[in-house]
Amino acid sequence: MILESSVLRALAYLMQPVFDQVFITGEKSILFVVSLMLFGVFVVRAFSG
Q1: Which of 3, 7, 8, 39 could in theory staple to 45 by disulfide, Cβ–Cβ 3.0 to 4.6 A?
Q2: In angstroms, what CA-CA distances link 6 with 1, 3, 42?
């Protein structure tokens, strides 16, 4: 349960660069990096329960 809540916090933390750098400034180079990190978060979340 602790791992699930920390993964949820990590998901929210990773979404901030998407909103700040992609939607506001229009920088699209960060999308690949953030998408890989989000994939990793979902993999950890799947294995946690």
Answers
A1: 7
A2: 9, 5, 12
